[in-house]
Amino acid sequence: MKNFKTIILSNQEISPGYYRMKILAPGYNELARPGQFVMFRVQRSLPPLLRRPFGIFRAGFLPADCESMPPKEFIEIIYKVVGSGTEIMQGLHHGDPVELLGPLGSGFDPGTPEEEKILVGGGIGLAPLYMLAEKMVEKSKVRLLMGGRSRDDIITVTEFERLGVETYVSTEDGSLGEEGLVTRVLERKLDKYPKASVFACGPMPMIEAVQKICLERGTSLQVSLEALMACGVGACLGCVVKGEGHTEVDPRYLCTCTSGPVFKAEELNWNKAAINGVESGGCK
Amino acid sequence: MKNFKTIILSNQEISPGYYRMKILAPGYNELARPGQFVMFRVQRSLPPLLRRPFGIFRAGFLPADCESMPPKEFIEIIYKVVGSGTEIMQGLHHGDPVELLGPLGSGFDPGTPEEEKILVGGGIGLAPLYMLAEKMVEKSKVRLLMGGRSRDDIITVTEFERLGVETYVSTEDGSLGEEGLVTRVLERKLDKYPKASVFACGPMPMIEAVQKICLERGTSLQVSLEALMACGVGACLGCVVKGEGHTEVDPRYLCTCTSGPVFKAEELNWNKAAINGVESGGCK
Amino acid sequence: MNKSEKNILQPKMAVEVAGLRLKNPVMPASGTFGYGEEYAPYIDLNQLGAVVTKGMSLNPKAGNNTPRICETVSGMLNAIGLQNVGVDAFIKNKMAYLQQYETPVIVNFFGSTQDEYGEVAARLDDVPGVAALEMNISCPNVKHGGIIFGTDPEAAFAAVSLVRKRTNKPLIVKLTPNVTDIQVTARAAEDAGADALSLINTLTGMAVDVKTRKPRLANTIGGLSGPAIRPIAVRLVHQVVQAVQVPVIGIGGISRAMDALEFLIVGAKAVQVGTANFVDPNAMATILAGLEEFCRDEGIADINDLIGSLEL
Amino acid sequence: MNKSEKNILQPKMAVEVAGLRLKNPVMPASGTFGYGEEYAPYIDLNQLGAVVTKGMSLNPKAGNNTPRICETVSGMLNAIGLQNVGVDAFIKNKMAYLQQYETPVIVNFFGSTQDEYGEVAARLDDVPGVAALEMNISCPNVKHGGIIFGTDPEAAFAAVSLVRKRTNKPLIVKLTPNVTDIQVTARAAEDAGADALSLINTLTGMAVDVKTRKPRLANTIGGLSGPAIRPIAVRLVHQVVQAVQVPVIGIGGISRAMDALEFLIVGAKAVQVGTANFVDPNAMATILAGLEEFCRDEGIADINDLIGSLEL
Ligand SMILES: Cc1cc2nc3c(=O)[nH]c(=O)nc-3n(C[C@H](O)[C@H](O)[C@H](O)COP(=O)(O)OP(=O)(O)OC[C@H]3O[C@@H](n4cnc5c(N)ncnc54)[C@H](O)[C@@H]3O)c2cc1C
Ligand SMILES: Cc1cc2nc3c(=O)[nH]c(=O)nc-3n(C[C@H](O)[C@H](O)[C@H](O)COP(=O)(O)OP(=O)(O)OC[C@H]3O[C@@H](n4cnc5c(N)ncnc54)[C@H](O)[C@@H]3O)c2cc1C
Ligand SMILES: Cc1cc2nc3c(=O)[nH]c(=O)nc-3n(C[C@H](O)[C@H](O)[C@H](O)COP(=O)(O)O)c2cc1C
Ligand SMILES: Cc1cc2nc3c(=O)[nH]c(=O)nc-3n(C[C@H](O)[C@H](O)[C@H](O)COP(=O)(O)O)c2cc1C
Ligand code: FES
Ligand code: FES
User: Fold this and answer.
1) What CATH number is associated with residue D86?
2) Which residue among A51, A180, C292, D3 sits deepest, i.e. has the most Cβ atoms within 10 Å of its Cβ?
């Protein structure tokens, strides 16, 4: 956990509206656990005021430019352009100065090796699942169910396949893979592998549907949530979600940035509107 | 007078901290008169909020890229990096979108052709004098007295020479040209050419010294002033200076943006602190 | 094509404020648009819902010493000091120009005593082409130790009542945000006979030049405007809409259609655009186009259906 | 090397506020720095003039529904709802951590009745390591129809007087900016026994999601903070400094040394940094370095020579 000024190594559009950014990030290979995130800031730019949270997609080493130098570490984030901050980000280039605060938050618990693992990713939500898959493929059978509205929302599937993950794509408009919701695929897979544990990240309606399915079947589920964040370190208390047992009289709020962003399903309160109102697209 | 969205053609550092920016500016060759200015804004950048005023250094035509197309018009501005806005400007490149409001303000009155003309420029203040020189050299003998703190502050003198202007450089530290204040040179020249008329632009202390000299000798003087501006069009009344005859009881304020930025010396009140407080370096 | 689809192709933008029918809800804020003329080369005044002029006083006012303005983070401070040509010169020299346009002219005015307020209003009362008066009560009351009329509900009530007696024109009272409870002043103005309220005027602010140790404004204190103040303005408009029956005009930091929409949704019948005119002289036209586009996208046939649509 | 040159190489940064000697005038603003611990990985707490904790109440408070925060132009709105672990849990679980550091700990607290204020103060009174109390009076008075203590000079006077009786710790009273005349509340707090005043707390604001027509905060209304509010804060601090004898701590939109300097020059003895911590967890260290550099550049041997150096 630290904050440092660094630079962008590359920033490419990988699908319409989706970008992949590589950032020089010393120390991250050792530090970063699957499911963690960074608070990202463009250096020397006043707006937007607050940092933006992004899941760590991948951490790695650049080929060393010279025998005697240690190889450089980087992380990658994958982001969708949705508002003022990500609009500024899409215009950044190699060498542009940025700041990273992280790695932050709890990570996924990869569980026991023998189990079957099912990852469910909705659109940009699949970003934090890659490092998890990387970690699990060695010892477990990992399947990725990737859903999106249309073909443009299906990203980085090849990367998962290269890891040896079995991938299943579905789109709501049928423009790629199977037509329909990713949750339908999930039900089929759980019928087949009833002991699998599930790891999900994506838009709230998807997460809620996944939770319902897993609850009915008693399937172990971990979800990665998004919440509006100011600090990312547990200081502002802006990012809370309702925890298990939360009521108006006895409220139980958990910080998404420190207790999350990954939660075991049973830690959370799944009543309607329990989750921080990110659906509204944040504030502008 | 109009506002339009356009692009930058080039933006080069011409001396440490001084930049020359060429901007595509259709219509400016016909419209722009010597001494006028534009209100400049970087498109799609929130800060700085307000536009920045810059004198028009030069208007011209680009070589036509193709026989059948009319040649493209441009203007050039010369600016010194002093604060938040000019810091952003120095990072702009060819093709970056900007907005220009202008040409604005009164211009210089070039006077009668037979007279000798003396231009006095202090640092970046010489910017609005180039177009004036361009206009006057055909029919008058034009001399430029250019002053600055050190050699870095002496800019574009060669351009004036190419027009056929006789130039005299002085710096306070003697690092280029004569050592001392430009006003000393002015006094010598006025001794020699007592009928010359003077056109001055530069920092307030220089302008005030020039005014004193010209007043004593009855020399005709026009000055171009700087003032903090919000609108540039006479609507906000933020940019006023004190006019001739101004008193606390009977205040007479003139808008720098519409009645100026060029004033005949006799239009202004030259009491101490009569002039809009730009000396303080504006606000941040 | 059925009727509702047709409507949405050209959403209805007309609104009614203080008995005035405006072709759309977008107008400039006083003091940021001169006497209209200054911006005519850049924006078609006929496009606007109304033109609101610089504030007028009984006698010409020279305004404050300089510096008068200063940029701040996403905003600006001004202490122009209400410089204006005086109401008589305005009527004589400025009205003819504005009457060329079909757009209603709203004349902003102020006084330093309640009698002066009354007198200015009376002089404007029978001037043809003046569609309404906007009374700026953010001015010091020289008879009461310089306390701002708008921060003293009783003084506000008395001044508005007097003005009400001296004019038959629709009367808009412009409130100051620098108060503990704006609902109190809003009700005082309404009770005294205002046909509409407009808010917010600038928030009092100050900036210091750390090198010279001097205030950046000759007047030390000035009025903060621009995008920075928008959340405060939206809150105040929301509170006033809930406190009064008369229509409310929203002002404060509006530079995009999105911004104007926030005010309309909380219940403002119209909006005024101030500082944004300086940044982009065409801002109001862009905002207007954005409002129409929003209505079309959202299937709103009449902008009035949007006004006050806040869901709590 | 003569003495004055030596001083300037290492300008003296220590200040005294409410009888506390602080090694420098920079500290976090309550609610933006958690309990200190959250930011310890990013900034050396020993560098700071003081640590100011999240506001404490008698009983734990769960806080508001979500969404609780929202970015605005150069600022943010928050309606956290004063979520905190409660004063007893704080004393038990959080103080030990903070006592590892030499930096004085200022505990911010609040109540919903004057008795609750008094009780929290009493519980903190004999806690070792608590250097001072900061009393947040921007809270609704449940016994008086929810009117904010800080907007009602009598309620503020009564609450501060009671707290004064129940604690021997230095007492800082934190004022709300949402008032017509801050000098009145400032004097009420001083008269009731405050050793220092801090200001400003957030300005009340609101933002609307134009797509959903809902307020962006579940609580509808929230507190605006960040660079956008700085000019208002500087003005208020300037006014309070002129109204009272006790030291004043300046707060509001400080993110750079330049910003802190504005407050010091108008007369604040120290400053608190809030929202800027979220943007840059190292902001206070950078500000501190900038203050030292400014003093060196300007030949100021002791930062106290700068405080109140405003030239009018
Ligand atoms: C732990 C975590 C991990 C995330 N990982 C990714 C990722 O890998 N890729 C990706 O594209 N997005 C990710 N998001 C969402 C991402 O943070 C937002 O899309 C982004 O902040 C939007 O910024 P903006 O300025 O473009 O949008 P605006 O709407 O202009 O932002 C305004 C404010 O709302 C906040 N906001 C808006 N949408 C969201 C959101 N969905 N979640 C949280 N805050 C939001 C912004 O941070 C900002 O404070 C993640 C969010 C969280 C909390
Ligand atoms: C009519 C006119 C013509 C000008 N021509 C030139 C020119 O050709 N080249 C050039 O380099 N400069 C020129 N200036 C000055 C130029 O406008 C300022 O240097 C520039 O605005 C500084 O902006 P900033 O954001 O970098 O500085 P900041 O100090 O960050 O600016 C803050 C605010 O103060 C204003 N401001 C600061 N300094 C000045 C100043 N000297 N004059 C007016 N406003 C100021 C800014 O416009 C802005 O509103 C001219 C000014 C005027 C009025
Ligand atoms: C330079 C300037 C001059 C102003 N003059 C007046 C005025 O004469 N009368 C008035 O009622 N308001 C005046 N105002 C306030 C504006 O009308 C408006 O209420 C305020 O600027 C907030 O809107 P904005 O944020 O869109 O600028 C002035 C504002 C500015 C910036
Ligand atoms: C998320 C958040 C939580 C806050 N919580 C408190 C609090 O518990 N007690 C308090 O007195 N002020 C609280 N404040 C107000 C700040 O201490 C400070 O007065 C205000 O944010 C202005 O400073 P800034 O602009 O530097 O943020 C909070 C502010 C924010 C942004
Ligand atoms: S983002 Fe601040 S506590 Fe989680
Ligand atoms: S800059 Fe607005 S009147 Fe001159």
Assistant:
1) 3.20.20.70
2) A51
C70 in catalytic set: no
Phi, psi dihedral angles at B261 (to 5 degrees): -75, -10
Ligand 4 in contact with D225 (CB < 6 A)? Answer: yes
Task: Give the total number of structural domains in chain A.
Answer: 1
How far is the C-alpha of A37 from the C-alpha of A35, rounded, in Å?
7
- Please indicate, yes or no, if residue A18 is contained in any of the structural domains: yes
pLDDT value of position D191: 97
Q: How would DSSP label each residue in B138-156? A: TTS-EEEEEEESSGGG--S
CA-CA distance, C226 to C69, in Å (whole number)?
Answer: 13
Q: Give the residue numbers spanning the domain of B8.
A: 2-104
Is D166 within a domain?
Answer: yes
Residues constituting chain D: 312
Interface test with A, best of D45, D59, D66 (most A CBs within 10 A): D66
**Residue A241 pLDDT exceeds 50:** yes
Structure-token pair, residue C191:
């009770």
Catalytic residue (one of C20, C45, C79, C139): C139
Query: Regarding beta strands A166-171 and A178-179, do their DSSP bridges make them parallel or antiparallel, or are they unpaired?
Result: parallel
Q: Where are the alpha helices (DSSP H) in chain D?
A: 3-9, 87-89, 95-99, 114-125, 153-166, 182-191, 230-243, 257-266, 276-279, 283-298
Mean pLDDT of B108-125: 90
Rounded Cα distance, B98 and B87, in Å: 15
- Which range marks the domain in which residue D81 is found? 3-305
* Residue C155 three-state SS: helix
Residue A145 dihedral angles phi and psi, to the nearest 5°: -105, 115
Cα dihedral A185/A186/A187/A192 (nearest 10) = 90
- Asked if residue A111 lies in contact with residue A142, where contact means CB atoms within 8 angstroms, the answer is no
Write down the pTM of the prediction: 0.95
**Whole-angstrom Cα distance, residue B238 to residue D220?**
37
Is residue D274 scored above 50 in pLDDT? yes
Residue B53, in any domain of the structure: yes
D43 occurs within a structural domain = yes
Examine residue A164 and state whether it is found in any structural domain, yes or no: no
For A49, which of D75, D209, D212 is closest by C-beta distance?
Answer: D75
CA atoms of C250 and C233, how far apart (whole Å): 8
Write out pLDDT tens, residues A146-186.
999 999 999 999 999 999 999 999 999 999 889 999 999 99
pLDDT, one tens digit per residue, over B190-199 is 999 999 999 9
Pocket of ligand 4 contains residue D56 by CB under 6 Å: no
Non-local (6+) Cβ contacts of C234 within 8 A are C250, C252, C262, C263, C266, D205, D206, D207, D208
Polymer length of chain A: 284
The residue with tokens 């105040």 is C236
The helix-helix angle for D182-191 and D153-166 (nearest 10°) equals: 30
Which of the two residues, B256 and B44, has the higher pLDDT score? B256
Q: Does C151 touch chain D (CB under 8 A)?
A: yes
Mean pLDDT, residues D9-37: 95
Is residue A10 assigned to a domain?
Answer: yes
The answer to whether the CB of C141 is under 6 A from ligand 3 is no
Report DSSP state, residue C93. I
Cα–ligand 4 centroid distance for D55 (angstroms): 9
C249 close to C269: Cβ distance less than 8 angstroms = yes
Q: How many structural domains is chain D composed of? A: 1
Decide if C310 is inside a domain.
no
Rounded Cα–Cα distance for residues D296 and D303 (Å): 10
Taking all residues of chain D, what is their mean pLDDT, rounded to a whole number? 94
Summarize pLDDT for C188-214 with one digit per residue, the tens: 999 999 999 999 999 999 999 999 999
* Residue D311 domain-assigned (yes or no): no
Q: What is the rounded radius of gyration, in angstroms, for the C-alpha atoms of chain B?
A: 18
